[in-house]
């Protein structure tokens, strides 16, 4: 019995460890007079830890003020909660928001223009910044931005003497050749709007034509047909359960086009030599366009003047080179300012992990999905469904996209304003 | 039933790479006793490992003189400082027909964990002192990774459990979950018993209509009420308090319905006899109806408890400080948008369901006894 107690006590000692960022923040905010809440959608893992580290560092320099990050589940939970908070009239000071969330919040005139706070946006990636510009005014600070990149199996490419493809044609040819040699499809993809967007953008497609949403354009049909043919011809494999990085090992794998936010998970799972390259594009000289995902930080109008002042300082801190470098290298997200690339933390990391420099290079060739308030629903429930039907149920791509277009139009027109 | 349970337990002992393999790993390295002995040799304490200030640990890799391996302590990305990577000296020296990788703590504080990466030339047979947590190809080398090179036996076996426990304030989460669930069961039972008795045994005009109305509320899906309930709680100032977690769930239509059916099955003669002896409605309820409906109470109690203990969406919406969050929200810490940490997730799941499994066995006995008792009547 005594021994058992000792063991339990020893385990208790083993469990105890140095203060966690969460506890440090709690202590920092307990003493503060002004607390600016930041609602976020990082449930856990590296992003949550990295954000908390940022906040701890920021709060250290504050006198009587603090930022308190509040995890609100996943991104969809977060937007649900913000909608509920609007209804209840109690919004936080800051929150993470996708471009389409911003469009929605702006309908309620709930956001503050970032520049009206006095935050300087020089040096911020222009593509990212333009995505949060509504009517010429910037409403968000690009924060955790990920970009699609090409993950590949160096060992397999080397074995068959296949170079990393530089354009779409080469990509398809390489996938076909490797699939024949290995006896199974080597290009893996998730049949969803993100994968589709890569092919769609690089075949010259654009979701908005004269300000109108078009899901069934010529390029869209071409993109979906290419994917469908890939499955038919045996060089593309749809992954329907879990992430691609959870399926490595279940057959020959050569390529996938996936978000840079998954980099650490790919690294963990892969037993082969993992390569990261810029995306194959339309022509040889220039990388293909990758879909940008991830959120921005917005500031709500309802916040008090003192809270807004904290938000201003925090956003400037987030954009500082060191904070950008630390946050980005920790998470696989892309630094949103050029200044971060000169920071020693970034340079040391990029020297050790050349893949990361590739991710940053890819971020200069970025495209966004349309910033419509309804996009979340369209992307998952309408366009996403059409893609699944074509890939998994072999529906005709044109018919599936026509149906999606009709559904999207109904959704957009039936909206009460 | 046993298979998913085994998978959960086995995964709770897997290294990140083992957990992410498409072909399932049935017996993870951490479950093999031979590795426990190897791990016991690494670190200051045979059980808990660690590397105190000024202390060294040496890992031996038998192998030929050329080509030499390389070793490093990887920096943990995302920290402004990394005392372990900065404070550990790594040396690779030749001796005794192999290579020694010596790690020395040059800092002033002890380290509980020292991660290690060894680059081992491909084509050279490998006999590591402890199976690596990950092994992947990197150019001309195998990249071998250990999440902790000084684990000690328990630190090695229970690595995921220790990580999971450290990831969130579980003590507080358990308290909130148990307190919320227990109050919901206790008060919920009391309210349901009163309402059900009235609907089953007290004649009053419009009784059937009231019952139908009560049942009708069962048809409204909970998600529809999410935002109205949230707004109501916000106006009451109850967000992020125990009131928000408990009060909306106290009156349960399911409980009323279940207990009403139980009371109806009791013979009317019992209540007539009680009435002749002068018992009022409350006496009839507490002295006759309740003792005879133990199985109903127990099953309602189990459902309510599990419902409250497993609730995810509601606590997520109405709470936000760590002090008010429940165990299920704690599990979210291991899931992210691009991947999941399955080892730690399963370890956390194992200790989160442990009380429920124990409670199940206790309640099962109660449940069977309850049924047996009614059978005798």
From TrEMBL, chain B:
Membrane-topology annotation of the record: Multi-pass membrane protein
Matches recorded under PROSITE patterns: ABC_TM1
A GO BP annotation: transmembrane transport
Record has Cytoplasm as a keyword: no
Predominant place of localization: membrane
Subcellular location: Cell membrane
Transmembrane intervals: 174-197, 209-230, 242-259, 342-363
Keyword vocabulary terms for this entry: Cell membrane, Membrane, Transmembrane, Transmembrane helix, Transport
CC per GO annotation: plasma membrane
PANTHER family per the UniProt record, alphabetical: ABC TRANSPORTER PERMEASE PROTEIN MG189-RELATED, ABC TRANSPORTER PERMEASE PROTEIN MG189-RELATED-RELATED
Entry's family note: Belongs to the binding-protein-dependent transport system permease family.
Descriptive protein name: Sugar ABC transporter permease
């Amino acid at each position: 019995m005594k021994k058992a107690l000792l063991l339990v006590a020893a385990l208790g000692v083993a469990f105890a460890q140095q203060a966690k960022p969460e506890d440090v923040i709690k202590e920092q905010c307990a003493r503060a007079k002004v607390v600016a809440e930041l609602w976020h959608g990082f449930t856990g893992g590296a992003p949550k830890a990295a954000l908390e580290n940022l906040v701890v560092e920021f709060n250290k320099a504050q006198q009587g003020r603090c930022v308190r990050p509040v995890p609100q589940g996943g991104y969809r939970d977060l937007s649900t909660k913000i909608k509920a908070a609007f209804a209840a009239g109690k919004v936080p000071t800051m929150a993470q928001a996708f471009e389409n969330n911003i469009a929605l919040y702006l309908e309620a005139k709930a956001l503050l223009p970032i520049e009206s706070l006095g935050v300087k946006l020089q040096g911020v990636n222009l593509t990212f910044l333009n995505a949060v510009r509504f009517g010429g005014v910037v409403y968000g600070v690009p924060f955790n931005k990920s970009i699609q990149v090409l993950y590949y199996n160096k060992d397999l490419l080397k074995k068959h003497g296949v170079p990393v493809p530089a354009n779409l044609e080469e990509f398809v040819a390489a996938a076909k050749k490797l699939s024949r040699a290995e006896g199974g499809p080597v290009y893996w993809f998730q049949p969803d709007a993100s994968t589709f967007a890569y092919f769609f953008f690089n075949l010259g497609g654009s979701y908005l034509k004269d300000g109108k949403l078009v899901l069934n354009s010529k390029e869209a049909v071409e993109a979906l047909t290419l994917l469908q043919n890939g499955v038919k011809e045996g060089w593309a494999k749809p992954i329907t359960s879990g992430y691609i990085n959870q399926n490595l090992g279940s057959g020959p794998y050569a390529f996938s086009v996936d978000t840079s936010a998954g980099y650490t998970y790919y690294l963990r799972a892969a037993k082969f030599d993992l390569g990261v390259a810029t995306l194959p594009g339309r022509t040889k000289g220039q990388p293909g366009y990758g879909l940008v995902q991830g959120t921005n930080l917005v500031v709500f109008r309802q916040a008090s003047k003192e809270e807004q002042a904290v938000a201003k300082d925090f956003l400037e801190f987030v954009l500082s080179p060191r904070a950008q470098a630390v946050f980005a290298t920790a998470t696989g997200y892309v630094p949103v300012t050029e200044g971060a690339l000169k920071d020693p933390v970034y340079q040391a990391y990029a020297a050790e992990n050349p893949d990361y420099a590739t991710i940053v290079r890819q971020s200069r060739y970025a495209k966004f999905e349309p910033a419509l308030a309804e996009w979340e629903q369209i992307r998952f429930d309408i366009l996403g469904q059409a893609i699944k039907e074509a890939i998994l149920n072999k529906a005709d791509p044109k018919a599936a996209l026509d149906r999606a277009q009709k559904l999207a139009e109904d959704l957009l027109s039936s909206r009460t304003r | 039933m046993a298979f998913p349970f085994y998978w959960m337990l086995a995964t709770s002992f897997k290294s990140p790479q083992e957990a992410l393999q498409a072909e399932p790993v049935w017996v993870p390295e951490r479950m093999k006793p031979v590795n426990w002995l190897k791990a016991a040799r690494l670190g200051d304490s045979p059980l808990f490992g660690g590397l105190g200030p000024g202390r060294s640990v040496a890992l031996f890799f038998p192998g030929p003189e050329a080509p030499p391996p390389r070793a490093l302590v990887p920096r943990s990305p995302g920290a402004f400082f990394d005392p372990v990577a900065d404070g550990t000296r790594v040396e690779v020296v030749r001796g005794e027909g192999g290579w020694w990788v010596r790690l020395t703590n040059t800092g002033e504080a002890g380290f509980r964990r020292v991660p290690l990466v060894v680059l081992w030339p491909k084509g050279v047979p490998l006999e590591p002192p402890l199976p690596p947590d990950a092994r992947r190809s990197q150019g001309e080398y195998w990249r071998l990774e250990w999440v902790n090179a000084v684990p000690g036996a328990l630190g090695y076996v229970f690595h995921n459990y220790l990580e999971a426990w450290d990831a969130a304030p579980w003590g507080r989460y358990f308290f909130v979950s148990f307190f919320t669930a227990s109050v919901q069961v206790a008060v919920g039972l009391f309210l349901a018993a009163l309402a059900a008795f009235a609907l089953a045994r007290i004649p009053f005009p419009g009784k059937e209509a009231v019952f139908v109305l009560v049942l009708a509320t069962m048809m409204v899906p909970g998600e529809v009420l999410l935002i109205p309930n949230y707004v109501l709680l916000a106006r009451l100032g109850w967000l992020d308090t125990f009131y928000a977690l408990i009060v909306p769930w106290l009156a349960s239509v399911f409980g009323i319905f279940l207990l009403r059916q139980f009371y109806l099955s009791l013979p009317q003669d019992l209540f007539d006899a009680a009435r002749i002896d002068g018992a009022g409605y409350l006496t009839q309820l507490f002295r006759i109806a309740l003792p005879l409906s133990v199985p109903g109470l127990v099953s309602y109690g189990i459902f309510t408890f599990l419902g409250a203990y497993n609730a995810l969406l509601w606590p997520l919406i109405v709470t936000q400080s760590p002090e008010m969050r429940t165990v299920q929200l704690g599990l979210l810490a291991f899931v992210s948008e691009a991947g999941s940490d399955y080892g730690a997730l399963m370890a956390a799941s194992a200790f989160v369901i442990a009380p429920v499994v124990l409670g199940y066995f206790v309640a099962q006995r109660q449940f069977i006894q309850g049924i047996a008792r009614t059978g005798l009547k």
